[in-house]
Amino acid sequence: MRLLVVEDNKDLAAWLGKALRQAQYAIDIAHDGEDAEHMLKVAEYSAMILDLALPKLDGLTLLKRLRQSGSKLPVIILTANASLDGRVAGLDSGADDYLAKPFEIAELEARIRAVVRRGQDRASSEITVGDLLFSGGTRQFFVAGEPLQLTPREYAVLEQLVMKLGTTVSKTALSESVFGFDDEADPSAIEIYIHRLRKKLENSSVQIATLRGLGYLLRHVQ
Q1: Which helix (H) or strand (E) segment is 122 a member of?
Q2: What pLDDT, in 10s, does the model give residues 161-171?
Q3: Which sequence spans correspond to the domains of the chain?
Q4: OmpR/PhoB-type domain location, by residue (predicted)?
């Protein structure tokens, strides 16, 4: 799952990026509204964490433009302005949630899960494929009732396959879900993660099929 963090305080942005990557998210960071607007046009995100006091283009204007474009991207506002008027302005501009600084990372993670669940119907419940179960609420995988141990990038690949269940997912789409703009992405990396996932799923009743020239498909095998 890929998130966009828009925060002009570079120390706070770096801390957020590190904490959210440890929570198995792919993270891109923008330090001003103009860069964020460009990134929203060229990449697909599951949610945006948005500061309001931004240089070049302020957060509320960015959010209004995003909603005017028809985007339903979940947005959580982060701001030092915890007043009622500030919260109302943010929510009226199209924000899905509002979190005042300072905050605990655990609360931000919970709010991310909540807005993504509301934005994606599949993420609001458990998804089962054979004996593989994905819990949208806890973002955990289980095989035959046992937790499946995955690295963050293995997790990101499998999560994307589960969320696109029934459709073929291209290597490009998987790469975008795993790597942020600042990551060094080896073109063969997705093949490596797919190989590792297949090894971890080899005793289950699910399979990651390769459709040559199209991508990968998660399916139940008898």
Answers
A1: none
A2: 988 888 898 88
A3: 2-119, 123-220
A4: 124-220
- Give me 21's structure tokens: 């990557």
Give the containing element (helix H, strand E) for 43.
Answer: none
Contacts of 222 by beta carbon, 8 Å cutoff, 6+ apart: 205
Q: What are phi and psi of 34, to 5 degrees?
A: -65, -45
- CA distances to 38, 49, 57, 192 from 123, in Å: 27, 19, 32, 26
Q: Where are the beta strands (DSSP E) in 31-178?
A: 47-51, 75-79, 97-100, 126-129, 132-135, 140-143, 146-147
Q: What is the pTM of this model?
A: 0.64
Cα gap 27→79, rounded to integer Å: 19
CB 208 within 8 A of CB 215: no
Torsion of CA 76, 15, 37, 96, to 10 degrees: 0
- CA torsion sign for 199, 200, 205, 210 is negative
pLDDT tens for each residue of 118-142? 766 544 467 888 899 988 767 789 9
